[in-house]
């Protein structure tokens, strides 16, 4: 289905659909339901990779501080943007493993 056709089914403009797709605009629960119906999938389809352990309300103060420092840095923003452009989940996991290895205390002792 083209973006044009999907936008028409949802009753939004092509540009608005692109904003949803690119994360520029948030999509509300009602619109998400309409999107699922238009695509013929259950709403849960959009949450297949959702990890409840990542719930921001359950983060420790230390985790929240680390995120703020990371996103507050130029390199952090660039890394986050580049990482989010990687579609392959396996490659994302490998990059995470690499950064964990490079950032471990053991690697700094060598």
UniProtKB/TrEMBL annotation:
<dbReference type="GO" id="GO:0003677">
    <property type="term" value="F:DNA binding"/>
</dbReference>
<dbReference type="InterPro" id="IPR001387">
    <property type="entry name" value="Cro/C1-type_HTH"/>
</dbReference>
<feature type="domain" description="HTH cro/C1-type">
    <location>
        <begin position="1"/>
        <end position="46"/>
    </location>
</feature>
<protein>
    <submittedName>
        <fullName>XRE family transcriptional regulator</fullName>
    </submittedName>
</protein>
<dbReference type="Pfam" id="PF01381">
    <property type="entry name" value="HTH_3"/>
</dbReference>
<dbReference type="InterPro" id="IPR010982">
    <property type="entry name" value="Lambda_DNA-bd_dom_sf"/>
</dbReference>
